[in-house]
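I hope you will forgive my troubling you with a question about protein structure. Could you please explain, in whatever detail you think fit, how the structure tokens follow from the sequence? Thank you for your consideration; the sequence and its tokens are set out here.
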Amino acid sequence: MKKVKQFGETVEGYNIPVLNEREIRASAGILYLIMFWSWILVIFIDNYLLLKYANTIFLADFIIRLFISPKYSPSLIIGRLIVSNQTPEYVGAAQKKFAWTIGLVLSTIIFFLLVVLNSDSFINFLVCHTCMIFLFFESSFGICFGCKLYSMFYKEKAQYCPGEICDIKEKQEIQKTSSMQHAVVIGFFALVITAAILFNDGFGAKPTSLWFILKSAFSI
């Protein structure tokens, strides 16, 4: 019987193949940064060149992860180098494979629409930003949306999810937030909105050279 190729790594103490969440988060941060700057260029100077390269890189990286091995994914290798001095945090490989399959589907759609057809539409915007949201939450908060969806499509429960998000558990005291903390957050956003209304013209003005300001001040 032909042996099925294992997805993930065998680590002592874990009964299923696992991956290192720390390098996955580092990889997600790298890909998010590339996509973020790509969209900055699109929004401000209407330049799609970097976005097309970014999507091609994104698609190629996910193809390598899923059809060859996560060990040979360029972004995961770079992520491994960055966090190599940190203690690994192991997560189940099965749910990560499912999440990356979603990423592969989304990046394939964008590659076809943007690179192959060279087209622009709301679909491009929606799919690209869905990918960016997934990457942002993965890299910043360790929240894997694909891992959460895994249990909806598979009967077996996902094991070793990052931050144990797949397990229902009571929050510890340090994780709870009070009404006062909620009020602080609301007040902070109210302050930002107020500042935007009152000082929008001043904030929007182009900065003057500090040398010119000092020269004008001392020449009086």
Observations:
- The mean pLDDT is 86.
- Residues 21-45 form the longest helix (25 residues).
